[in-house]
Write a structure and sequence with these properties.
The chain is an alpha+beta fold and about 400 residues long. A seven-stranded mixed β-sheet has the order 1-3-17-11-14-15-16. The chain has three domains: about 150 residues, SH3 Domains (SH3 type barrels), CATH 2.30.30; about 60 residues, Roll (SH3 type barrels); about 130 residues, endopeptidase fold (from Nostoc punctiforme) (Alpha-Beta Complex), CATH 3.90.1720. Its EC number is 3.4.-.-.
Length: about 400
């Protein structure tokens, strides 16, 4: 399942609410997560950027143009807390149904999963009317929060993300161009924001926490939203088809490797350290075991060679290429590959574990194999060593 993300500025979001709502992003309960229709980001001062084509966009461009024309009359931008008060956030074990009427007799239009978000329209007889993704309908108020109660939950379940907008972005030890560079991240990578100051944001990268200039990133807050019945059906069918294709590609590649004795791109495992792979699917375990062969090999920024050097996404891409599966050379894009897994407790060997500006392959027992950085090379680490943004399963 591929999540669809939209980004818009905070003042436009407020206008969109006034003109009939907004849409928003996030995560749900269950070991395999649904997509949640369209995901939207609340951002500050950034233009609308629609990065998908399979879902119609909200008609807000005219609002943006109008507000630019009358900029001198525009009131001050609302705070993030003001925006969060307009949200309706599900607080349930799994999901709450979105119905066509404020009654149990209403037709089920979709599902609002736990911690997923909608926009409040009105309250009617113990029901909230909301807009979330492509779904507009009613949810039982007892299963959701809004207003002041939604503010703290929104801060907890949402993620503040900085998306890199330049070819190579330097991460510095302090918020100044005079400070030393601690790392580099490529264009389109998503970085988890820890702190914001004037002109700079503190982000989480593989080398640690550092600062990047807001001139070279686009900021937004991600949540997850409702999924309509039709979207759920399409997602399940698409996931089944993607699994089938991946399994067929892997079987074909395995046959080719067997015919050539499977020696290409292979190196002996290190004798001093051994790691076991157990659980999950046979294909996923094979991916994890294959990736472990390259522990100790170098990290090279922008590289994709398992023997001569790869960066994090290049390593994941090349490991999966051995099984006939084509993945992008981008840790950010890896967040939309395959389908979602809910939490580390449900991860299986072969799953892709995505972090802020980083990605690795789960091998089981709470560990990942990954191309970490230029100092350590390809190593095995505890999967929970950093905040996990997403876990994706290919097979």
């Amino acid at each position: 399942m591929i999540r669809n993300v939209k980004r818009m500025s905070a003042y436009v979001l407020t206008a969109a609410i006034a003109f009939s709502g907004m849409s928003i992003t996030a995560q749900a309960s269950g070991s395999i997560l649904p997509g949640g229709g369209v995901s939207l980001a609340l951002s500050n001062g950034n233009k609308l950027e629609d990065i998908t084509t399979d879902v119609p966009t909200m008609p807000i461009q005219s609002i943006m143009e109008w507000m630019q024309e009358v900029d001198e009359d525009v009131p001050s931008q609302p705070t993030e807390e003001d925006l969060f008060k307009n949200l309706v956030i599900a607080q349930v074990t799994n999901y709450v149904n979105v119905r066509s009427l404020p009654s149990e007799e209403g037709e089920i239009l979709g599902k609002l999963y736990n911690n997923s978000v909608g926009t409040f329209i009105q309250e009617e007889n113990g029901w909230y009317q909301i807009t979330s993704g492509s779904v507009t309908g009613y949810v039982k108020a007892e299963y959701c929060v809004t207003g002041e109660a939604a503010v703290e939950i929104a801060k907890r379940v949402g993620k503040r993300i900085a998306t890199v907008t330049t070819e190579t972005l330097f991460v510095r030890v302090e918020p100044s161009t005079e400070c030393s560079i601690m790392g580099m991240v490529p264009e389109a990578d998503d970085l988890l924001v820890l702190e914001e100051t004037e002109g700079w944001v503190k982000v989480d990268v593989e080398e640690g926490t550092g600062w990047v200039s807001t001139e070279y990133v686009s900021l937004h807050s991600e949540f997850v939203q409702a999924e309509s019945k039709e979207e759920e059906e399409r997602r399940l069918a698409k996931e089944a088809e993607e699994r089938r294709k991946a399994q067929e590609a892997a079987a074909k590649k395995a046959a080719q490797n067997a015919a050539s004795q499977g020696t290409q791109n292979s190196v002996p495992a290190q004798e001093s350290v051994s790691y076991s792979v157990s659980g999950g699917s046979e294909m996923g375990a094979a991916v994890a075991q294959y990736g472990l062969q390259f522990v100790g090999n170098p990290y090279v920024y922008g590289g994709s060679s398992l023997t001569n050097g790869a960066d994090c996404s290049g390593f994941v891409m090349s490991v999966y290429a051995n099984f006939g599966v084509s993945l992008p050379h981008s840790s950010s894009a890896d967040r939309s590959q395959g389908y979602a897994v809910d939490g580390l407790a449900n991860a299986q060997p072969g799953d892709i574990v995505c972090y802020s500006g980083h990605v690795g392959i789960y091998i089981g027992d709470g560990q990942i194999v990954h191309a970490s950085n230029s100092k350590t090379g390809i190593i095995v680490s505890n999967a929970g060593y950093r905040n996990i943004l997403a876990i994706r399963r290919i097979f």
